[in-house]
Each structure stands twice: as C-alpha cells, then as structure tokens.
Amino acid sequence: MIKKTHILIFFLIVLLTFNSCSFFKKKTNEDEETVVIKKKNVPINMKDRILERDNSPIFGGLSKKGGGTTYEFATSNIMWRATLETLDFVPLSSVNYSGGIIITDWYSPDTNSKESLKIEIRFLDSELKASSIKVNSFKKKCENINNCLIAKNSINFNNKIKDSIIAMARELKIKEELKKNK
Question: Which helix H or strand E contains 162, and what residues bound it?
C-alpha cells in the first residue's frame, strides 16, 4: 500500500512539474480573446496559408510586381519548370522551391566512369533572364572509393547549363503564349 502511494505521489509531482502549474491556473477572458485573435490570423485554406507564409524575395513577398504578396507555384514558374526539364536526366538530391534552390545528386552517365558531376542551381529572381539564376557545378574524380578529388567546374561549363535552362524557359514561354492565343 505504501509503495502504491509513493508511486502516485511521484506521478503527481512529475505531472505538475511538466504542466507548469497551469492545471490550477484559471483562464480569464483576456486569455480567451488572445486565442481567438490568433485563430483569426491563421487561414483555414492551405493555399491562403502558403500565400501568407511566403516572404521569399525570389517568388513572393518582395517581388517587383507591386503591393501585396504574389506567389507563383512551381507549375507556373517558367524558370523553375525549365530547370527541372533541363536537369531531368540527373537524379535530384534537394529541391526547395520556396528557398529557390535545386541540387542534383552526383551523376555519371557511364557506370564505369571515375568521374561524376553535381549541379547546384540558385534562383535569384523569377524573371526570364540570365541573371535570374546562378549555376555552380562540381566534378568528382575518384581513383578508388577512398581517394576522390572534388573540384569546381569551369565558368564556361556553368554558363552552358545556364544557357540551356534559359533556352528551355523561352521554349516553354512560347508554348504557353501559343496556348493562350488559341
């Protein structure tokens, strides 16, 4: 009997400690109003939450299109779609639309090759222009599993990738305009 009482007292002490004595705190009208105000500020619709949440200078809140926030979803952003289509042959490691970055995994077109490639695309703006994206790429050469050298690729190589993305974006833009005019 004494052992059960000790366990019950210990359980109550732990419960009260983690509960920070809020168990005994009486709620006031002021507390309830605060909760109601917070609930009013949280949109119920998921699309509205995304619109409100996004303060990204790349795709949202600080865009040059005037007052308020504008949020272009990944399916409607031509630069984003063009990048994904251009890199469709490479496995993607990290894709973050709201952060404006795409990172590929190490890729080698030949299974016997000792060289592999990794590409990182950073979106600086959502407009269709060359200065809207920055491309970094890296080459990994391995003599064996434990002996690899990683080096940054040349600016010319990065510019070729950027030019491919811009060309794909232009094609997508033209196709989109043709669909609108039909």
Answer: helix 155-181
Computed from CA positions of residues 14, 18, 20, 21, in that sequence, does the dihedral angle turn out positive or negative? Answer: negative
This prediction has a pTM of 0.58
Q: Are 112 and 142 in contact (CB under 8 A)?
A: no
For the stretch 77-119, pLDDT in tens is: 899 999 999 999 999 999 998 889 999 999 998 887 889 999 9
Residues in the chain: 182
Q: Please tell me whether residue 44 adopts helix, strand or coil conformation.
A: coil
Q: CB count, 10 Å around CB of 119? A: 24
d(C-alpha 139, C-alpha 157), whole Å: 11
Residue at token pair 């809020």:
22
Q: What is the CATH number of domain 78-181?
A: 3.30.530
Residue spans of the domains in the chain: they are 2-42, 78-181
Residue 87 tokens read as: 């890199």
